[in-house]
Every structure is written in structure tokens, then in C-alpha cells.
Amino acid sequence: MEMKKRISLELRNRTPAEVEELVVDNCRTSDGEVEGLTDDFKELEFLSMVNVGLTSLAKLPSLPKLRKLELSDNNISGHLETLSEKCPC
């Protein structure tokens, strides 16, 4: 399943602004980038993207309340400075 579709299913009739926890483990990204996440997820505190095929975090949106991020089993090789810019906590 593609990451974008999985995120829309995980919303479960909620708006992105209402989501505090999001788990999209084992889905697939089509280009190695974060897909389907937007700045609208402003209340997100926990995000898990384990084994989704990520190679970069360049498209990670601003997530000001994020406290825990799980990215194991990916092949991320750049743009790690994005974490400090987009997730300041």
C-alpha cells in the first residue's frame, strides 16, 4: 500500500489537525520521500514510518509538537538537518 493512501485510511474520519499519533509502518513510498503528510498535522506527537522505503526527509512537513519519531529499517542518507528545522522539540 502506498504511504499517501495509508495516511488517508489512518485518519479514520478525522482531520489531520485532530491526529496526535500516526503509524504507517510497512507501507511504501513511491520516490523515497515522505508522501501524504502536510503542515496540517500540527498536533502530531508520535509518528512511526518504519520500513517504508525512505531515502530522504527533505519533504517532511513542519511538525511542531512531534515528540517521538520512528524511522528504523529505512535507507535515509540525507537531509537529517530537516529534523531540527521541522521538529524543534
From TrEMBL:
GO terms for molecular function: histone binding; phosphatase inhibitor activity. Keywords: Chaperone, Chromatin regulator, Cytoplasm, Leucine-rich repeat, Nucleus, Repeat. GO terms for cellular component: cytoplasm; nucleus. GO terms for biological process: chromatin organization; regulation of apoptotic process. It is found in: Cytoplasm; Nucleus. InterPro entries: AN32, Leu-rich_rpt, LRR_dom_sf. PANTHER family: ACIDIC LEUCINE-RICH NUCLEAR PHOSPHOPROTEIN 32, ACIDIC LEUCINE-RICH NUCLEAR PHOSPHOPROTEIN 32 FAMILY MEMBER E. This is Acidic leucine-rich nuclear phosphoprotein 32 family member. It comes from Salmo salar (Atlantic salmon).
